[in-house]
Amino acid sequence: MPTDHPLDTALALQRDPTTPGRWQGAPQPAWANMVGPYGGITAAQLLQAVMLDERRLGEPLALTVNFAGPVADRPFTIDAVPVRTNRSTQHWTMQLSQGGEVCTTATAVCAARRPTWSAAEAVMPVVPAADAVPMETRKPPIAWVQRYDLHFVEGGWPDFSRPQELADSRTVLWLRDHPARVLDAAALAALADVFYPRVFRRRQRAVPAGTVSLTTYFHADAAELAAVGAQPVLGVAQGRRFVNGFFDQSAEIWSPDGRLLASSHQVVYFKE
Amino acid sequence: MPTDHPLDTALALQRDPTTPGRWQGAPQPAWANMVGPYGGITAAQLLQAVMLDERRLGEPLALTVNFAGPVADRPFTIDAVPVRTNRSTQHWTMQLSQGGEVCTTATAVCAARRPTWSAAEAVMPVVPAADAVPMETRKPPIAWVQRYDLHFVEGGWPDFSRPQELADSRTVLWLRDHPARVLDAAALAALADVFYPRVFRRRQRAVPAGTVSLTTYFHADAAELAAVGAQPVLGVAQGRRFVNGFFDQSAEIWSPDGRLLASSHQVVYFKE
What residues of chain B lie within 8 A of the CB of A84, using their CB? Predict the structure, then answer.
C-alpha cells in the first residue's frame, strides 16, 4: 500500500500506548473542507481505529458517524471500544475528541462473513463506462475535492450563479481516489461522503449545510474490494425529503462490473 | 395518551434516581419476537430514554440502534448520555445492558427545527386507500405482530410451504398500531422495524435472520405526527444486496396524504 498517498497519510493514526483502543491523529490540509475536515475522512479515520485494532473480528459491515461538533485544525484523540464480541459479529463504539470535548461519535459493526445464498436486488444504472465520460476539470477550490477524480454522468456541480429549483437532486458519477489507490474499507468509508449536500443540487444555491449523521453499509469484503483495485466506482445519490432545516440522502457505490459495494445514508443540516 | 396501551406500557421506563440518564425497563410479553423482544420495541425504548430526559433539546432527527446481543426476558438498564449539545442539535449515546453486559448500543440526534425552504423529492407509491385494502387476518403466532394492523398492498407474508426465489423483496403495506394509537416519534421508531427480514420474502423460506443495525431518520416533527393521529401509515420496504450472510433493506413510512414521515435503513444477518 502506498504510504505517501494522502488517504494513507490521514489513516496513519498513532497508537497511544497508555490506553488500549486509543489513537492520536490530526486533520490533514489535503482533506480540508470549507470549515474543518471533509466528513468522509473523519469517517475513515474513525473506522481506521477499528481496522488497526488487534482485537478486531472480521471486516466492516456497518458504520455510523455522528458529526457532533466541529473538528478544529489540531490533533485529536480517537477512542475505540469493542463493546461486545460474538461468534460472527463485533460491536464497536468510537469517539473523536479534542481537548476532552467530543467532536464525533460513531458505532461500527464488524462481521466474519461465511458463504451463503447470495443475490443482487438493486441494479446499477445503465451508464457509459468511466473512460467514455469526460473527467471533470472544474473543481471548487476545496482541498478534499482535489482528492477525487470525478466523471459526472448526471447532475454535476451546481451552478450557484443561476439559482433555480430543479426537479430532483440526483447525481450519478464515476469516481476514484486521486492519485489512484486500491480500494479498501477505509477508502470506501471516505468515498461514501463524496456526494455534496443534495440541497445544493436541488436548489442550485449555496446555503450553509453539513452532514449530521452518516451510516454506511459495506457489502463487499476485502477480497471483493481488492478485485476492484484502482478502477473508478460508480456513485448514485439522491435526497428524499427536505423539511425545516434537515434532509436525508442515500447513495449507492457500484463496482464497474455492477456489484453493489456499499450503500450509504445521511441526514444533513441546512439553513434558509 | 392512553397509559394502558401496550406501546405505552413498554415505554414506561423507571428513572434510576442515583444516576442521571439511567432508566430501568423490561421486555414486555406483548412485544416478544421468536427469541427476545421485537427489535422495534427495543429501538423505541432506547429513544424513550432520550424523550423522557429533561436535558433533551428539540425532537428526534436520527436514531441508530445496534443489536449487539440478545436481550433476555428480565429487567434491563438503559443509560442515555447527552454527549454534546449545540444551538440546534444534540447528540446522544445510549446503551441497553443486563447484568453489566451490553445488549444494545445506540446513538440519537435531536434537533430544534426552524422553518426553511422545504420540498418533497421521494414520491409515495400510488396505492388504494387503507380502508380499500383488506386487513390481514392471518398472522404468525408471534406476539409483536399482533401489535399491528396490517393491510398488505404488495408482498404479504412469505409462504414458507412453497420455497421459491422471487424476483424482488419489496413489500408495500398500510399499518397501524393495534389498538390504534396516536403517532409519535417512539411509535414511529417501533414501526420502522415492522418490515420482516427481506430474505424471507425474496426466498419464501424461513432461515435464521435478525437485524444487526437499524438507522431511522425522522422527517416529521411532533405536530406533523400528531396530525396523522391514529390513521394508518404506508410502509414501503425493499432489500438491495444479499451476500455472504448479510443484506441491507430500506424502508419509507408515509402519511396517508403523502408526506414522508421517516426513512429507515437496516443491515440484517442471515444464515444458509
Answer: 68-69, 101-102
Helices and strands (DSSP H and E) totals, chain B: 5, 13
pLDDT in tens, B46-99: 999 999 999 999 999 999 999 999 999 999 999 999 999 999 999 999 999 999
User: With contact defined as beta carbons under 8 Å apart, do A121 and A141 qualify?
Assistant: no
Å between A26 CA and nearest CA of chain B: 21
CA distances from B161 to A59, B91, B195, B202, B207 (A): 35, 46, 20, 14, 13
User: Would you call A61 and B267 a contact, using CB atoms and an 8 Å cutoff?
Assistant: yes
A134 secondary structure, DSSP code: P
Mean pLDDT by 10 residues, chain A (272 residues): 85 97 98 96 98 98 98 98 97 97 98 97 98 96 97 96 95 98 98 96 96 98 97 98 98 98 98 92
Closest alpha carbon within chain A to B123: A240
Beta bridge partners of A193: none
- Alpha-carbon span B156 to B154, nearest angstrom: 6
Flag whether residue B84 sits within 8 Å of chain A, measured between CB atoms. yes
Asked whether the beta carbons of residue A212 and residue B62 sit closer than 8 angstroms, the reply is yes
Question: Would the pTM of this model clear 0.95, i.e. be above it?
Answer: yes
Length of chain B: 272
**Chain A residues inside the 8 Å CB shell of B118:** 242-244
